[in-house]
């Protein structure tokens, strides 16, 4: 045990600090698998361009695995160097990512900084502050029959080569936050940005190789064919964020290699509003959590459960809350985002008829704009209650009381998050004890995922596994049991 700790401490503080070497726009840099798109693809077919032959996913995995087997990624100094390099990129080149996020999702610079860039920087800082302690071997008591000279402990070992597949709704944060944990754990990493956020994907593919060790890191751009090719390879862990349908595909592919998987999915996250709650405070917090990123947030409140009297009071309160956030014309507000593409716009537009429009309801397909919308008098069997909304539509469903609300929640898939607005400790305790959800927030939606010392993840249909802070290290590591008995 003492020998292991000595080696460990020698590795801790040898980093030469972070650095960011950003490649200019142009041919793919090392660490990037370039997939021709649009005009470039046509030119290649015609023979009018002659780029470097793109590296195939199988070659990427083989190259990274060869690096991992040298032991290069295991020293703590290497890990912290990668994290500092990533932090430097975010602080020095964050404006370029913010521009890409605006192009893909209409995010304001403020929202891009707060929810994607600064969020990741805080995760890096938290990891750097605590990584040495997290990695310390944990002693275990040894039974007397093994002798007083026997010692035992557990230690975290890197898994190997891991794959991170990111979604389009927070295309930077939800790629980079898992990457932080994977690197901190000492793995080689392949990341696959979402093709549905093409500007952000391109920016990440250009910026990341300049800040990380490209012998142990790669970005693979592309769509379904590239993702399918990656999933055919043997990884040591796959981390997927997205919807349940694709999550099942990922899980089936991983089963071919017995690869462990983290699935960060979603679902319909309810918000229960008790009759004793301050309706305007509730409305302000609901609106801020729901309409951030135009409702395209996996832990956004999906629908409200409350009694009929409180529901009636919520309607004007939510109207005031929306106006306070985005003014009388949200379409003109620089702080309100857009729907990612026409397909999702059409899907969301089709849900607007599921109830009486109490707030908003305006749409503009050309601008991919759907106003912050509240639907009242919603029937539980209506289309808007049959799927995760993932957009700026908030249905209000009425129930007689707490028992019915708990039953309503339990009759459906376990949500990624559950929010409770109540002054009653008894009500809060009952919901905590009698329901199951990935996370539980009392009085403030979304906030639990910003606490680095809390695990973030789903349960049941909303996902498996978790991450953030120490939980990311655990996800991307093997906790190995070690026992030592001297020979002499």
UniProtKB/TrEMBL annotation:
A Pfam family matched in the record: Aldedh
The Aldehyde dehydrogenase domain, residue ranges: 43-482
PROSITE patterns in UniProt: ALDEHYDE_DEHYDR_CYS, ALDEHYDE_DEHYDR_GLU
GO molecular function terms listed in the Swiss-Prot or TrEMBL record: oxidoreductase activity, acting on the aldehyde or oxo group of donors, NAD or NADP as acceptor
Active site: 264, 298
InterPro entries per the UniProt record, alphabetical: Ald_DH/histidinol_DH (IPR016161), Ald_DH_C (IPR016163), Ald_DH_CS_CYS (IPR016160), Ald_DH_CS_GLU (IPR029510), Ald_DH_N (IPR016162), Aldehyde_DH_dom (IPR015590), Aldehyde_DH_NAD(P) (IPR012394)
Keyword entries, A-Z: NAD, Oxidoreductase
Family indicated by similarity: Belongs to the aldehyde dehydrogenase family.
Identification of the protein by name: Aldehyde dehydrogenase
């Amino acid at each position: 045990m003492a020998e292991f700790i000595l080696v460990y401490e020698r590795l801790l503080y040898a980093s030469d600090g972070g650095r960011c070497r950003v490649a200019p726009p142009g041919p793919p840099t090392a660490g990037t698998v370039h997939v021709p798109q649009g005009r470039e693809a046509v030119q290649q077919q015609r023979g009018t361009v002659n780029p470097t032959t793109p590296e195939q996913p199988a070659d990427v995995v083989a190259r990274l695995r060869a690096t991992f087997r040298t032991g290069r990624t295991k020293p703590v100094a290497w890990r912290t160097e990668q994290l500092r390099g990533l932090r430097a990129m975010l602080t020095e080149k964050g404006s370029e990512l913010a521009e890409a996020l605006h192009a893909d999702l209409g995010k304001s610079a403020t929202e891009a900084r707060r929810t994607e860039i600064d969020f990741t920087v805080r995760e890096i800082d938290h990891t750097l502050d605590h990584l040495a302690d997290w990695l310390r071997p944990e002693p275990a008591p040894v039974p007397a029959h093994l002798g007083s000279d026997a010692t035992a402990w557990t230690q975290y070992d890197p898994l190997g080569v891991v794959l991170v597949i990111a979604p389009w709704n927070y295309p930077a944060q939800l790629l980079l936050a898992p990457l932080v944990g994977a690197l901190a754990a000492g793995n080689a990493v392949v990341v696959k940005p979402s093709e549905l956020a093409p500007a952000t994907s391109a920016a990440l593919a250009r910026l990341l190789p300049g800040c990380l060790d490209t012998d142990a890191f790669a970005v693979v751009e592309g769509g379904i064919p590239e993702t399918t090719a990656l999933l055919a390879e043997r990884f040591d862990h796959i981390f997927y964020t997205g919807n349940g349908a694709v999550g099942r595909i990922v899980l089936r592919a991983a089963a071919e290699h017995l690869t462990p998987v983290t699935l960060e999915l979603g679902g319909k996250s309810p918000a229960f509003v008790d009759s004793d709650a301050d309706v305007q405070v509730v409305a302000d917090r609901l609106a801020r959590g729901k309409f951030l990123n135009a409702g395209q947030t996996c832990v956004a409140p999906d629908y409200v459960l409350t009694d009929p009297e409180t529901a009636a009071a919520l309607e004007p309160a939510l109207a005031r809350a929306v106006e306070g956030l985005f003014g009388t014309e949200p379409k003109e507000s620089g702080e309100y985002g857009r729907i990612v593409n026409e397909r999702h716009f059409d899907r969301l537009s089709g849900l607007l008829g599921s109830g009486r429009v109490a707030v908003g309801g305006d749409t503009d397909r050309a601008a991919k704009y759907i106003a912050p919308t509240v639907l009242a008098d919603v029937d539980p069997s209506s289309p808007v209650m049959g799927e995760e909304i993932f957009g700026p539509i908030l249905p209000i469903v009425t129930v007689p009381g707490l028992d019915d609300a708990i039953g309503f929640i339990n009759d459906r898939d376990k949500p990624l998050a559950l929010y409770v607005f109540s002054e009653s400790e008894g009500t809060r305790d009952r919901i905590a004890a009698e329901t199951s959800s990935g996370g539980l927030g009392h009085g403030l939606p979304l906030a639990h995922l910003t606490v680095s010392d809390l695990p973030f993840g789903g349960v049941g249909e909303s996902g498996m596994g978790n991450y953030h802070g120490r939980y990311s290290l655990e996800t991307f590591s093997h906790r190995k049991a070690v026992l030592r008995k001297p020979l002499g």
